Automatic annotation (TrEMBL):
Transmembrane segments: none annotated. The lineage of its organism: Bacteria, Pseudomonadati, Pseudomonadota, Gammaproteobacteria, Pseudomonadales. PANTHER family: GLYCOSYLTRANSFERASE, SLL1095 PROTEIN. NCBIfam families: glyco_like_cofC. InterPro entries: Nucleotide-diphossugar_trans, Trfase_1_rSAM/seldom-assoc. It holds the Pfam family DUF2064. This is Glycosyltransferase.
Length: 205
């Protein structure tokens, strides 16, 4: 079954003091911003294979360098809709499903998410209404959907270790089969930085 799948990345604009705030004690506001910019650029280099469209939804307007990177790597930059994280994700998923058979939502905080992982997600989505890429901290780094229900996004304890479990519970409640990919790690806290350095990503403070 061949699906048209649109890829949607939700990302914070690299603005000092407003991004990677939990890393500011280790990196400072400028270093945390530099890390966000590096990880955003890394995510933009993900291969386009398997996707009909690719969008980056920023929480603020892009600067010239971010716009140039998006143009270079074939992404369309869009400003995020209003609302809390769940409302924004639901709106983005609804807009994506209006123009494609399926949507895939990711962030830019997971350096271990690569082209092979995206292809595994695409394959799983061709056989299931939903696919999830779990995060080691109890959230998720990827959500793929062929249909939409607000239940997946409302009253969700975002930013906690309960998100993945509650999302799976609600998928079962809806009666939607779903596939879980291998868990990946993301970068949120100072203790994640040595792991990031093992991939060759270092920030000079």
């Amino acid at each position: 079954m061949s699906l048209s799948i649109s890829l949607h990345m939700l990302a914070r604009s690299p603005i000092p003091g407003r991004v990677k705030t939990r890393l500011i004690p280790a990196l400072g506001p400028e270093g945390s911003c530099d890390l966000q910019r590096l990880m955003l650029e890394r995510a933009m280099r993900l291969p386009a294979e398997g996707f009909s469209d690719r969008f980056i939804w920023l929480d603020d307007g892009p600067d010239e360098s971010v716009q140039a990177l998006a143009d270079k790597h074939g992404w369309t930059l869009v400003e995020q809709p209003a609302g809390d994280l769940g409302e924004r994700m639901r709106t983005i998923a609804a807009l994506g499903l209006a123009g494609s058979d399926a949507v895939m939502l990711i962030g830019n905080d997971c350096p271990a998410l690569d082209g092979e992982y995206l292809q595994q997600a695409c394959s799983a989505l061709s056989k299931n209404p939903a696919v999830i890429g779990p995060a080691e901290d109890g959230g998720y780094v990827l959500l793929g959907l062929r249909q939409l229900d607000p239940l997946l996004f409302s009253d969700m304890p975002w930013g906690t270790e309960k998100v993945l479990r509650k999302t799976c519970q609600r998928l079962r409640q809806l009666g939607w089969a779903h596939h879980l990919l291998d868990p990946l790690w993301d970068v949120d806290r100072p203790e994640d930085l040595p792991r990031l350095a093992s991939l060759g990503i270092r920030i000079e403070v």
